Fold these 3 entries.
Entry 1:
Amino acid sequence: MSPEKMVYMTNQIATYFKTQADPDRAGKIADHLSDFWEPRMLEKLYAHVDSGGAGMDPLVVEAAQRVRRAKAA
Amino acid sequence: MKDFILPPLNDRDMGTPTKQGAPITLTIDGFAVTVPEGTSVMRAAAEAGLQIPKLCASDNLEAFGSCRLCVVEIEGRRGTPASCTTPVVEGMVVRTQTQHIKKIRKGVMELYISDHPLDCLTCAANNDCELQDMAGMVGLRDVRYIAPANAPLANHFMRQNTSGEANPQWLPKDETNPYFTYDPAKCIVCSRCVRACEEVQGTFALTIEGRGFDSRVSFGAKTDTALASDCVSCGACVQACPTGTLQENSVIELGTPERAVVTTCAYCGVGCSFKAELNGDELVRMVPYKNGKANRGHSCVKGRFAYGYANHKDRILNPMIRDQITDPWREVSWTEAMEFTATRLRALQAKYGQKSIGVITSSRCTNEETYLVQKLARAVFGNNNTDTCARVCHSPTGYGLGQTFGTSAGTQDFDSVEHTDVVIVIGANPTDGHPVFASRLKKRMRKGAKLIVIDPRRIDLVKSAHIKAAHHLPLRPGTNVAVVTALSHVIVTEGLMDEAFIRDRCDWDEFQDYAAFVSDLRHSPEATALLTGVDANELRAAARLFATGGNGAIYYGLGVTEHSQGSTTVMAIANLAMLTGNIGRNGVGVNPLRGQNNVQGSCDMGSFPHELPGYRHVKFPEVRKIYEDAWGITIDPEPGLRIPNMLDAAVDGTFKGLYCQGEDILQSDPDTKHVAAGLAAMECVIVHDLFLNETANYAHVFLPGSSFLEKDGTFTNAERRINRVRKVMAPKNGYGDWEVTQLLANAMNGNWTYTHPSQIMDEIAATTPSFAGVNYDMLDAKGSVQWPCNDDNPDGTPLMHVDGFVRGKGRFIVTEYIATDEKTGPRFPLLLTTGRILSQYNVGAQTRRTDNVIWHDQDLLEIHPHDAEVRGVKDGDYIKLASRSGETTLRATITDRVSPGVVYTTFHHPDTQANVITTDFTDWATNCPEYKVTAVQVSPSNGPTEWQTDYNTQAEQSRRILPAAE
Ligand code: SF4
Ligand code: SF4
Ligand code: SF4
Ligand code: FES
């Protein structure tokens, strides 16, 4: 999966959750990623976030960090 | 292994349809019988076990009263009324066999027979003819009317008289339809065929022309042949015909069948029950089964006639392997094939990791087979890399309905349509995709139900014989969310919602948020009209009708799901149903029309990478434990790869091996070039199918599959109905598909020991709460059952959410329209949307190998006259269709069924490769591809594109098979 495609997919998810009246949107995005993304896709996501998260919605960046922490726990 | 006793086939013709009403008791030939008010005397007699002779009556048609063979005497009434048209009355005393009646009946039969050829012994209907039966039953012994020896002949069946003069009344056979023949010489003009075409199928292709002695059955205009007429070849007329006038060609060729086995159609999600009628193991014909609860005795051309692919010469019967996809195929034994495959897969896992291989389950195979394939991934491969083609069609249904109602299940049974008052059909084309459901819907519409069609194209339901939609909202592809949200806007702002239902059944706070959102003026039909192309007044009228017109039901298809906002549209639909209180009773509901026969089942069986059977997430330890205990392994708690992710991972080099059962991802998945690149990057692709499909061009192992006639199992249709599939002949390839998967599992040390699919169902029932009550004995006894079926619902669940939603309170979800990034522009100014046609099925692998090609031998591009003219495209021209992804060529057909700016095609033929055009945009939640919107340009062309030529060369190379080694 190219970084562009991954950024695109995650931003698409963020765009949806941004339309929802939820106090914790990053949490919702994190749940979604955690439920549906396979580990090697998540690894790519973490790597992209680590290298600055270019093009990525800030909510996704936050969500990615939360997924990473949760899965490491 | 266990033998199953087939349930007795009780499908006797009761003469007239069943009625509902207060009980009425009468006496027939001295027997007292009680039947519902409105029942005919004929049916009452049949209920009492007495058969009154009849010719023009049949219990799937309203009584007509034309043959007068069914006359009876009724005490206190004058004359001899026809029993089929006489309703029962309390205390009535009926006699069916008096001297007087018997004489009348003989007279009637004598007249019929005097104008009927007496070549019974050589007639295809011999022994399967009601005229014969009735002649026998009334004791007809001689026929006194003989036509005069010379012209004019007073009959319809002699071609010429004894002096060789032609009989002007004689008409030649019509053999234009590939599946049945019309022989006018044998017709008794009972009009059962005409009424079947009207009442059962709803096509109105047949009429009776002329009067009295001159009356004839005709396919529309005088010049029309069966093929040229409106006939859709459903076969209802053939089934209704009491004589050999309308007869299946297979019976003409093979003779009348001597045994019948009830089974289920393997084409679409309606899941029609059929009687497979055979001589020995030779299939003579498929006849829709009257007691089938999905189809109630009706069928379409695919299930009824298009089964010949099972014997097609292209079918592969031996396993084949090759080292590289550039090599020709080599036929090998099953043992060698399994060793080769197991060794390769294990080597890949050793080199690239446990998660480097996976499976794709099929929506065409049985539940039992699908269950085994996902079990192969989870228990033998040791990962969750399992997905199914439902990914590319109904995965947004799972997500959307799961979020709002708490389960992905469709809410109704098909019978529910008989109680509906207003229907919304959105993104579906039932007359082509789900024909038997369409017939049932049209029947209800003829009785007064109203229809709202939301579709970019003017589909047949918008207007055809004796039906017309109240509203058609021809939206621009990709704007579903905006249109459905606008419907809700009208309902909320005009105060038309069902507040009592919402307060009682839904989360009221969430509703408040939703109501505030949807009431915003930007969601009004006026504000969105520019975007959606839908007339605001029409949309308002449709919303009012749906909210106030009585029982409202929504039926939707892939035109809803296959969008980047597919999941959001499903939630918008669920909102609309809750808003109007249309959930939890007969005649209402949210009804996903599933494409393939077992899409529902393949999802139920745990095909998705994040869910174990019964839609339970792999992250839950208590769910994993059930399977870990049953299978003696550990289950990965992390979700596996979905199909698009598998292909991405393959291109990245981390996914290397794929077992693909009964699925042709290269043809059916979007962005063909990306799929091809993914497949080409894998080192072991195993295709398990009937034919060398397109995906097999990239395969290293080919395992021959078995057809639905060759194995036992179950399919689950769109109404969650579990229907039995029964083995009527031995698998031509040697093994049922479940056995092949077991061979592979065991070659990889799986130690599976199933000897019959019933044992697989027992395992499913033991591990999946919604299937707990299901087993083969029960299915044989009940015929079919809708899940959930367990201790709480021992007879299954026809209606969902009756007393409350599965999740508790129904949840309203805000559905903001977000435009797809697939946008038109100067280079690609048109929007392409895709669909299918009645006679073909999915990628066409089966139907293209039957006579159905007579109706559709190539994919055509529908284009509006205006768009065609500015591009200099004429009807039938070769055109080039190009998008950002690729280009292909096909022929154009010019029609105003599509709006200006929109073009449409089907994807049934591999030569067209319509998916070279589609892009890799997907639904935000589920990665379901956005098939239904692609920006394209159309231009004149002289022939195939370079891609098509290259593709065909590669395919040809790849399909070479070496002669078997000696
Ligand atoms: S096959 Fe079906 S559509 Fe055709 S004439 Fe007979 S009933 Fe009508
Ligand atoms: S074709 Fe058959 S069903 Fe139709 S009118 Fe003639 S005999 Fe009756
Ligand atoms: S294709 Fe569908 S509608 Fe046609 S016979 Fe089969 S299940 Fe029924
Ligand atoms: S069966 Fe009653 S009139 Fe023909």
Entry 2:
Amino acid sequence: MINDFEHFTPKTLKEALALLAKYGDDCKVICGGQSLLILMRQGLVSPKYIVDIKGISELSYIKDDKDGVKIGATTTHRAVEKSAVIKKKYPVLAEMETRLASVQTRNWGTIGGNVCHGDPAGDPVPVLIALNATLTVAGARGTRSIPVENFSLDYFEVDLKDGELLAEITIPPPPPRTGAVYTKFNIIESDLATVSVAASVTLGAGDGVCQDVRIALGAVAPTAIRAKKAEKVLKGKKITDALLKEAGEVAATETEPISDIYASEEYRLELVKALVPRMTKEALARAKKA
Amino acid sequence: MKKELKFKVNGQPYEIFVKPKTLLVEVLRDLVGLTGTKRGCSSSSCGACTVMLDGMAVKSCSVLALQANGTEVVTVEGLAKGNELSPLQRAFLDHGSYQCGFCTPGMLMSSTALLTENPRPTKLEIKEGIDGNICRCTGYNAIVRAVTAVVKGEYKEAK
Amino acid sequence: MSDYSVIGKRVHNIDGTEKVTGSGKYTFDVVLPNMLYGKILRSPHPHAKILKIDTRRAKRLVGVKAVVTGKDTLGRKQGIWRRFPELCDEEILCRAKVRYIGDAVAAVAAIDEDTAEEALDLIDVEYEPLPAVFDPMDAIKEDAPQIHEGVELNININRHIEWGDVDEAFEKCDHIREDKFKCSSQAHVCMETHDAVASFGHNGKLEVWTSSQSSYYIQRLYADMLDMNESDIRVTNRHTGGGFGSKFELDSAQFCAAILSQKLCQPVKIVLTREEEFTATKRRTPMYYFLKLGAKKDGTMLAKEVRVITEGGAYTAMGATALYLTGFFSSFPYKYPNYRYDGYRVYTNTATTSAMRGFGAPQSTFVGESQIDMMAEDLGIDPVEIRRKNGMTPNYEVPGQAFIQSCGLHQCLDKIEEHIEKRGKLPPNHGIGVSAYGFMSGGIFNWFNTPYAFSAAVVRINIDGKVDVYTGTCDMGQGSNTTLAMICAEELGVRLEDVRMFSGDTGICPPDLGAWGSRQTLMGGNAVKMAAAECKQQLIEFTAAKMGVNIVYDLDIKDRWVHLVDRPERGVSYFDIVKEAIRGKDGVAIMGRGHYTPHRKGMISPAYSFGVQAAEVEVDPETGRYKLVNVTTAHESGTVINPVGIEGQLEGAIMMAGGYGFCEDQPMDEGKILNPSIADYKLIRSLDMPETDILEIDTYEPEGPFGAKEAGEGLTNPTAGAIGNAVYKAVGVRIYDLPITPEKVFKALKEKEKQQKKAKK
Ligand SMILES: Cc1cc2nc3c(=O)[nH]c(=O)nc-3n(C[C@H](O)[C@H](O)[C@H](O)COP(=O)(O)OP(=O)(O)OC[C@H]3O[C@@H](n4cnc5c(N)ncnc54)[C@H](O)[C@@H]3O)c2cc1C
Ligand code: FES
Ligand code: FES
């Protein structure tokens, strides 16, 4: 049963921030509600006030400019998935979206809501980490930006202070000769990830050396994480199968997976070892083609 | 505490006062009286409550009714034109795409939304289009066959 | 065969337009004037004494109209095995003790669901937790807590089946295998959860709308529990949003709604939440299986010994039947000359296990078909060949148990062999696994102790020639109304659109045991056919008299034309004859009655259907993840009455049985089900669904209506075994416990690698 609450529908970001400032702790933001309503129904969250930002049109956009592509927080998953710009510049992001939940959830749920929900098994965050994205957070006292990889703090906890809202996601233009991929391991195709891996590889001009690599993992720690040590194994080298295998082994040491009804801790580790090399190799192949 | 919700359902305008916590499915079933839309889980997992909102498939158990303010909702009751069933409805009949029928309204709404957006989906796209809907009876393939038949033009739209 | 005019045709289900327009009313949609909403308070403890229930705070909540506990009931216990009172062990609203997490202790009726739910929080129950036991292997130990008074070692029931001389036969075998398996639980996951609207009137009569597979059972069990006359209770099943074996026992929604309504004389509606559906309704029986199988070098199987321990959960329910059937179907579909089965159903402090589509046979088929593949490999024989060598044939008697008339198993094996050959060389890490099966067409056993015929029907022809069929059968989505209407139309010689079905309403339909054990087509069908034949006979007699037909001619009706069999052009319109016949009978509609109870057909079922399935999987050896690529089934179910219906049953069965093999499970911690939501309980969705192909085999079952038999449940039997065998063919690992998850496959692959390395050293 959902408890009663008071409902506000601000029309602008400014109005929303004012409402948040006014109601503070007793107040919760709702956007698509695809995650929040489940928590409210279970009684895990029961706010007195709800600030509904779904209708703030100034936060729903996909813009392409010189700093990269900017996605407003209330942009739906489906809009990201269908965006021509995204498909062209960051195909991995659109591909990820096609496997996030179902069409219905993507039609109403938003990428901003997903990132703020802080689910370590969520799909967008690992991809955004691999793409080196930055978040713009708006508060009563102005805005701040924060790399997406630092945003999640713990299970379902993100770096939002009282009165703050996620306003925008910025993805920098991909460097030349970059390829990025994402996969999630699950048993039912459209399900949440048991383990997920995003990888982005940038090759040096002409020499085939891995100039940069970003590897992000989901569902193997309290937050999505970046496997920096594994990246180090590959960075500045010509990628071989042996190095990839090593990167997988190293990535596994960077995780802290749990056992749950979907998979044991050991199995999750093994999946990281199998999938990190496989996905990095695919990213490499894409980089070569780029 | 109640707030006004103005929206259209199957073309008919409604003005209804609802508590903010009211879900779209509750308005449709309990206040508008359209019980074709079902609920199988109330947690966004089964798709039985799927309706079209401004042309998009959404799970009405997971949309606050007030968020539908100003929108146009279509439910399974809105698919037929008068006494003419829609092409998908006829194809479902011919292909045995329902058994107990409890998932069927949701399946029809997901398929209708899919074809509205993409009139020529591939088989994989059809499967993706109904992947948010559980059917415990049919095993889905008969539904995919029905949608495929409509895509192939075997069922004409009623005038 | 082809001179049928209705049977075998591809038709729309007769309730199809209601279903595709959303206009069909389910119990879930029923709203009555003055109706209240009920909710049920359930035990959070797996095993506890109820010391005190204080409902005062709840009763004071504005909007609450009644709160009931076990004290408001007659304190009776119910169960489906009514012939054995000691097996009727479930109070539904517990008075002194709760036995699983989810056992009902109180119920509330209020003006809306939210208020009722709020009231649940205000009921104070004082429990004294008792030691609990969850695994049947622990529950049969001497020192295990006793779940039901006086039941030693928690053994609820045991079953023994034996023929031949098993011990002697094993001595003659060239090769013997002994294997252990474990079959998991499974939830029915009907899309419409259990629900009921009960309305008790001031006239002392009870009317109930409920989603059910057997209105008659529910009516009878209500009568037992409320001490009422059957006839004062009317149970109506409207459209039912799925059953799969979960909806023919009196459940907590039905019982609590009635008790509340009785108190208030107001209608009360209870719809179980999805979480309750997962935790507080019945489920498939988990089983420990110990198998011993002996064969000659040439693959002839001489003896099989089966021992089974099943997790019963808190109450008997239909679990006792599952225990019996898993034992019987462990011999299927083969001719074991010597066979012994010992099964024990053990009470545990977990949700009750009972009937679910296949009823013990999916378990026995998984373990049996896994083991027979292992035996074939040991002996160096092809899996299809070993099945052929031992498979049942028509007119086979299962010694002392059952007589099998029609049986198309061998044709099915041929078809599947062809399919595998056609598929040719498979890509790497693909494998095709085979699994053979059989199933019954309705049970002969009468543990329910009904004095009525197993099936009955009334057919009435109205003045306009339209036909009404009244039958106590229940259409839960399997399409029985359509199949029965087709049988009626064929028998009577009218068109399908001339027939209207009234089913599952105890107020107007003759009793029928309902839709379980795959009994509707054969048993319900025979009853309808007989009733239709009686009507037809009256019309024919009338026509013969009217036309002054020479006595040497036979008359028949086909496609609304009453005519001479040998001179079909000589006849009259069915509609005209009906009009005149009714007028001639002083205005009385033409009526026919039919019934069916199997006699002299052994102890199990009057008929059996058979099939063979081949599942193809593709395994990713690095992760153990596999995909179901294709499932091809060669299947025989006698005359196919409703082909669209059979295809649907088959594909639906693959979704469910594939899920049983692949991903569905109910993991528990101290009796608590850990995945009670559709998000966490993994179900095959459209993207996971394999391609499905059907190879239909013609057979004719003399006992069935127009030669038809079962085609619904049996199809759930083979898939888990076929998947297991396919995974083995693909990557060489055998999984002994369901479901066959990627993690288990991965671990087995690692283990195999380790063994191989060891062997090399
Ligand atoms: C059946 C189902 C399956 C799913 N499967 C997947 C999956 O496979 N992969 C996946 O990644 N996700 C999945 N999800 C999660 C879901 O799709 C997303 O988390 C969802 O889209 C979140 O967006 P929303 O707009 O609905 O957020 P809401 O539910 O409205 O909000 C989520 C949280 O974020 C906060 N919030 C929302 N927007 C903002 C903002 N702009 N600023 C600050 N705080 C904000 C809210 O207060 C709340 O705490 C699934 C969900 C369902 C119901
Ligand atoms: S009821 Fe809405 S998704 Fe199940
Ligand atoms: S037809 Fe029964 S759930 Fe789909």
Entry 3:
Amino acid sequence: MVQSLGYLKESPSQTAGPYVHIGLTPNHADIRGVYDTDLGAVMVNDKTLGRRITITGRVLDGTGTPLKDALLEIWQADAAGLYNSPSELRGSADPNFTGWGRCATDGVTGEYRFDTIKPGRVPFRDGRPMAPHISVWIVARGINLGLNTRLYFADEEAANAEDPVLARIEHRVRVPTLIAAGEGDHYRFDIHLQGERETVFFDI
Amino acid sequence: MSDRPNRKPETGAFFARDRVWHPPGLTPGYKTSVLRSPQKALLSLDGTLSEITGPVFGHSILGERDNDLIHNFAKPGESAIGERIIVHGRVLDERARPVPGALLEFWQANAGGRYRHKKESYLAPLDPNFGGCGRTITDQDGCYAFRTVKPGPYPWPNGVNDWRPAHIHFSVFGHGFAQRLITQMYFEGDPMIWKCPIVQTIPDRAAVEQLVAALDWGNTIPMDARAYKFDIVLRGRRSTLFENRMEGN
Ligand SMILES: [Fe+2]
């Protein structure tokens, strides 16, 4: 016999199901009067520092059909590369930026949209700078455990080239699945759940 | 910060997720998963700041009735119809430490098994006094509680005759973005749990049982509401004794 480690098991995941919006974006689901606003609907205010950007896209299934019942959350650093979190010990993040957003894909078009700012660079575990990126979490009916990926920016070619996480992707043809195309301040990021262009998902 | 008193900042990376305990992505018995599950291997990544940090939700976001689904959508003086229950428990991490300040959001069908949603087509009636959503934040000891009506089971299009057991959906936000979790709570003694294709996506019976709330007779309020106890476990963090040091420092 040995001593017990006393660890517990993580609660197993179950799909968010078709009605995730009732719980997480009730106003969007037309359940009015319970919460004033949907959490994560607004990430910035007038005083937020940094370059304003818009990110839109869709989540596509194995046939290329957009999911109309998915929900995305994003988490990102502020313009200086600091997270608005108690676990951020390098400094104080912009108090006018939450860093966290939540959006349901549209029930008709499947489009999502985030109005945010371009994040700064954050160090990797060994101190090397990562390229600007946004963490993305996707849940929906048919997804048994939330999917994690990252959004990088097409106009950060030099930073992307030295990013320690992108460098870990063995099949280089898959790197572009993580890179949002930009036109001015608008970026486009489609997430492919399956197929030739399947997005790189992470076990984080 | 007031939601997390007496805690050192947490900077450890999370324990690797046990992906055998969780349901796999592809579970053909749950048909929708077939075209929505990634087919390529996940890229494993030990937590960076992007994964180990996470937003804080203060108690100030909560309204007075956010944790009372019997009343938070009801007309003044009225209440939702159904079996009155209290659901309570603790949010812990894999090291069995309480997780204070965790945001819990929950949603469910009404007592007849009907969701308030425009894509819902079950013929059971809506309850004009039931919205179906609520939220709360755990206290210093990781404890939470809310009041609701017991949801009904409902049929769903999968197999010809598939029904969901009574369940409450939970979304849990711990302290790091990598802890993000959505799951469902089932009720002790429900024979329908073991017939459900969504429950059956979980391979291990013991893992399913972790999602079954126990009838808590001790906390049942006489002449008012029965209690169910549902504890939730989020990923644990490594100790940082020999971490957060640059090479050579
Ligand atoms: Fe459900």
